[in-house]
C-alpha cells in the first residue's frame, strides 16, 4: 500500500545534532588554553598573596609588581573568555554569548584603567571609592549574566556546567560588594573548570583524529 503523501512525517522533531566539528581547532591549541587557564588560577592566588603582603609591609616595589601582575592577569582572563566563546560556538553551537562576554571584557579593562588612574584613592572614603565599587558591582552582575547564558548552552561537558555555576555564584557575590573577596574563590574555581573544559576538548579532538586515521 502506498504511503499517504499528506501524512505528517514520522520522524523526531528534535534530533541529536551530535558534537560540533571544532573546525580550526587543534589539540595543541586547546591544551595551551587549558594550561593558560591554570596559569590564571595560580597567578590570581599569587596576586592575592602579594596584595596582602604589600598592604602589610607597605613595600612600594611589591605594590608595583602586584599592579602589573593584575594587569597581565586581566588581559589573560579576557583572552581566555574570547577563546571560550569561539570554542563553545563551534563545539556546542552556543548562541548569545557575545553580548555578555564582550561586556565583561570591556568592564574588566575599564576597571583596570580606573585602578591605574585612581590609585589608592579607590580604597579611601570619597566619590572615587563609591565609583570604583559601583563598577565592581556592575562587573559582578555582568559575570552573573554571562553565567546564565553559559548555563543555557545545550549538550555541554559537565565541567562546562560547573564553570557556569561557579561564575554565577562568584558574580552574585562580587555584585554584593560585601562578599566580594569571598567571591574570588568560586571565580578561581571557574577558571579551574575552564581548564578541564579545554583539556577534555583536546582529548576528544585527539580521539576523533585517531579514528579518522584508522579508517
Note down, in words, how this protein is organized:
- The chain is mainly α and 215 residues long.
- Helices cover 73% and strands 0% of the residues.
- It has helices at 27-57, 60-91, 98-118, 127-151, 158-175, 184-214.
- The two termini are 41 Å apart.
- The model is unreliable at 5-18 (pLDDT under 50).
Tell me briefly what this model is.
The protein has 215 residues and is mainly α. The protein is built from six helices and no strands.
Bulk shape: elongated
- Give the C-alpha Rg: 22 Å
pLDDT < 50 stretches: 5-18
**Structural classification:** mainly alpha
Number of H- or I-type helical stretches: 6
Q: Report helical residue fraction.
A: over 70%
Strand content: under 5%
**Gap between N and C termini, in Å?**
41 Å
Mean pLDDT over the residues: 84
- Can you summarize the main beta sheet? none
List the helices and strands and how they pair.
Blueprint: H1 27-57, H2 60-91, H3 98-118, H4 127-151, H5 158-175, H6 184-214
Helix pairs in contact: 1-2, 1-6, 2-3, 3-4, 4-5, 5-6
Amino acid at each position: 500500500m502506498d504511503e499517504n503523501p499528506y501524512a505528517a512525517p514520522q520522524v523526531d522533531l528534535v534530533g541529536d545534532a551530535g558534537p560540533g566539528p571544532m573546525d580550526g581547532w587543534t589539540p595543541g591549541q586547546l591544551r595551551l588554553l587549558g594550561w593558560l587557564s591554570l596559569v590564571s588560577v595560580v597567578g590570581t592566588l599569587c596576586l592575592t598573596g602579594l596584595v596582602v603582603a604589600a598592604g602589610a609591609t607597605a613595600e612600594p616595589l611589591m605594590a608595583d609588581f602586584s599592579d602589573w601582575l593584575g594587569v597581565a592577569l586581566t588581559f589573560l582572563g579576557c583572552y581566555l573568555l574570547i577563546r571560550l566563546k569561539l570554542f563553545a560556538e563551534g563545539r556546542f553551537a552556543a548562541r548569545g554569548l557575545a553580548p555578555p562576554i564582550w561586556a565583561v571584557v570591556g568592564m574588566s579593562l575599564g576597571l583596570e584603567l580606573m585602578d591605574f588612574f585612581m590609585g589608592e584613592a579607590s580604597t579611601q572614603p570619597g566619590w572615587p571609592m563609591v565609583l570604583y565599587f559601583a563598577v565592581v558591582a556592575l562587573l559582578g552582575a555582568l559575570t552573573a549574566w554571562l553565567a546564565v547564558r553559559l548555563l543555557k548552552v545545550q549538550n555541554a561537558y559537565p565541567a562546562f556546567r560547573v564553570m557556569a555555576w561557579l561564575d554565577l555564584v562568584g558574580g552574585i557575590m562580587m555584585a554584593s560588594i560585601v562578599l566580594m573577596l569571598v567571591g574570588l574563590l568560586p571565580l578561581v574555581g571557574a577558571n579551574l573548570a575552564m581548564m578541564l573544559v579545554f583539556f577534555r576538548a583536546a582529548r576528544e579532538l585527539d580521539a576523533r583524529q585517531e579514528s579518522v586515521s584508522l579508517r
